[in-house]
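Bug #77: duplicate submission created two jobs. Keeping one. Sequence:
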Amino acid sequence: MGLGTTRAVALVGLSGHVVEVQAHLAASVPGFVLVGLPDTALSEARDRVRAAVASSGLTWPQRKITVNLSPAALPKSGAGFDLAIAVATLAGAGTLPGDEAASVVHLGELGLDGRLQPVRGVLPAVAAAVAAGYRDVVVPEADAAEARLVPGARVVGAVSLAEVAHRYGAALEEPATGGLAIPRITTGAPVPRAGDLRDVLGQAPARHALEVAAAGGHHLLMVGPPGAGKTMLASRLPGILPDLEESAAVEVTAVHSVAGVLDPGRGLVSRPPFEDPHHTATAASIVGGGSGLPRPGAASRAHHGVLFLDEAPEFASRVLQTLRQPLEHGEVVIHRAAGTARFPARFQLVLAANPCPCGRAVGKGLDCTCTPLARRRYFARLSGPLLDRVDVQVEVRPVTRVDRARTEPVETSATVAARVRAARAAAAARLAGTGWSTNAEVPGTWLRDRLGPGRSLLQDVDRALDRGTLSLRGADRVLRLAWTVADLAGRDAPDRADVGQGIALRTRGNHA
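Kept job's structure:
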């Protein structure tokens, strides 16, 4: 009888749990049993591991092998346990020294030729291992750069199972498989360079709304005809946002690692991500899902960045409604039969919409061919509860010939980004010790108390409430916007003009 032990990591959402992989070899009829709530892909490890061991020039033990993944009550998924199962089995057979392998975390999928293939979620898995006290980690060579992003980890990148066995002192002259590592393939598109705001002609009110949204972390709705520049403005929002702090960068990188869209060669994701799903996207692709344990969707991949929904009324109503939870709580909680996963999703939502199906209902709407009922039905696809959570709502007018003829210099993204950084620094200093970092996160009660004797500034807000222009939630949104406008202007507190700007930004200028 032999017993081999090593470690692996199971991911549930972004939470990693160190798993003890135990292989028990008994003198009985040869067989292989895997227990500990494995999913289908993990259950198939039996055939992958056996073929990989044979291809590596090692002897597969002809005994009854029982592999337990402890804790047994924790669901495990994926092929990332292959290497740990192989090492534990070989340690139990005496091929590898069991004492050394017991304190090492092994991550990686095995090919039938014994080569190690990259897996998703290496960064959060290694971080969980280090937090649990296991600093020595063996990963596929393609994942080594990502694993080394975790402070305190002692990472070994290996090309094949034979190389891992050779490092432990197995009786191999040299690794049986070649030295070519399997490349890491990501499903995400290359990171595009953010355009510059100097490319935008005119649109001074919309540019100002974009700057306010960036400075306070506010959600944004732009309504205007086709070709007015809504998409161009939205795509330039990440370019005026500040760099991610280290803790935020680690979170975003972990999400992208689990989603399989991380390029480890770029290191930590230091810039705010930008996600712009097509309007045919399903609810699962936006908030996350999939068979078994869920994977992060576009909302989580946009964590600490921008989620842009172009032609927002064309999205399915169910998709739009699923965004209400992350907008309020900054996370997505997905329940499945196999378990519950939590993914962070504190993003800035940017919606772009035409005013009507034909898109020409601008101003008096004289060129619009839609009936009043069609206009109402079209825009009603954006429900009131969703729009009530969007702080900044602005109309984007068509670009005129005068705008095209202007020759004076236009502010660049770098200029606007400098003001945004200063405004965010002012807000962070004011909110120090509260747990909030931007004005968009602060509840209205706290903002009203900060006004002190200046609460007379709320007269305009009260009148808008009486007229029904603002809801109670909308009134709090106006206060957030007023503080952001004051931060951009360098004032310690908002004045009545700032509150007026907040109302205008909230109501698309329809507050009179």
